[in-house]
Amino acid sequence: MIANLFHLLKRDLGLLLLGGRRGGAVLPVLFFLAVAMLFPFAIGPDPVLLTRIGGGVIWVAALLAAILPIDRLIEPDLEQGMFDQWALRSLAEEWIILIRITAHWLSFGPPLMLAALPAAALLGIDGPTLRLVELGLLAGTPGLAALGVTVAALTAGLRGGAALGGLLVVPLAVPLLVFGAGSLATGGQSGLALTAAVSLALLALSPFAAGAAIRAARA
Amino acid sequence: MQACRLALSDLSCRRGDRVLFRGLNCALSSGDALHVAGSNGIGKSSLIRIAAGLLPAYAGTVFSQGTIALLDERPALDPHQPLDQALAFWAALDGVDHASRDRIATQLGLLELRDVPFRYLSTGQRKRAALARLLGQRAEIWLLDEPLNGLDTAAVKMVEGLIAAHCQAGGIALVASHQPIALPGSRRIDLAGYQA
Predict the structure, then answer these.
(1) What number is the average pLDDT over the span B13-28?
(2) Contacting B residues, span 18-37, partner chain A, CB-CB under 8 Å
(3) Over the Cα atoms of chain A, what is R_g?
(4) Which pTM value belongs to this model?
(5) For a surface tag, which of A125, B2, B17, B175 has the fewest beta carbons within 10 Å of its beta carbon?
(6) ipTM
(7) Nearest to B92 among A7, A82, A88 (CB)
(8) What's the order of all strands across the beta sheet hosting B172-176?
(9) What is the pLDDT of residue B175?
(10) Helix/strand/coil for A93
(11) Mean of the pLDDT values across residues B99-120?
(12) How would you classify residue B192: left for phi > 0, otherwise alpha for psi between -120 and 50, otherwise beta?
């Protein structure tokens, strides 16, 4: 059982990480940087204003970047019959989803946290705020990953599932955004704690929701 | 191979608002093979999926004893990976060692295709690759949905040989196919006789 989960994680990482055939981690990171770069152009080079909105911009960019790979998270495996074969080998969908969330997070969470450094430079974010942004991303991105995989499972097989998936993630990610970006305004630990709490709740619920969605798609 | 059993009793299948077949009974034990025939859309694939436990039966029960392997039109192999790597994933899950993998690849004539990305393979080659996955699983009950699709005459003979060897070793094969297929025991049911 544990060995099988390890093989699954290895395959998922191979498909989702750098050089993987399902887009890899490069595209979301570049997208994230592009969004962060657009703001100074659109708003103008007012350092006071940019510093004030910078943290929020990074959060919005991270949310948008997390939406990018949604159509490749579940759909191809469902289409190729992988989930049927796993079911016949008594691998529970919940475990498979948990592994998929882990791999998805590894492929976009840490890269986004790294990319937040140049983005912070572009937006003129100072040291203490950057620390809060990074901690917030660390607390919030697992929840975003869980949400992404769940929505991917719910929309797999639907016509226009990718666009619908993106639209579904946005309202569901609002709590993460409110607490994550909110921690910047208050500068306190409470915002980070609430972000982590929302993340944990999403992580705990999503394997069951996504597993049920996959079983429903089969019938 | 351990003793295995597959029993379908009073099975009905509904897709949408249509009942495809009803009152289907069959019992297979170690060494048995059954050919499920019938025209397109009559419910052969649904029957296979119900037997696999992937689709709920509308009525009736499925009893199975033994591990189940499924071969259908979806090969479950990563299209972008070289064949060897795509099969290696399932070999790792099923605990197949290197010697067995080489033996299976030789048996199915896949040795020269090892480094070819799966999506470049032809229909027949894909089917043979999926058969390699099936053989590696070493399951007792084989559920085969149109295993002959896209295969040339030599490969058809080979598949018939594989099924015969599987039953000889004490396995069960339930084969849905619209084409004639030679199975040990020559048992055959036509789903047309069970139409609602």
Answers:
(1) 90
(2) none
(3) 18
(4) 0.91
(5) B17
(6) 0.92
(7) A7
(8) B68-71, B141-145, B172-176, B33-37, B188-190
(9) 94
(10) helix
(11) 92
(12) alpha
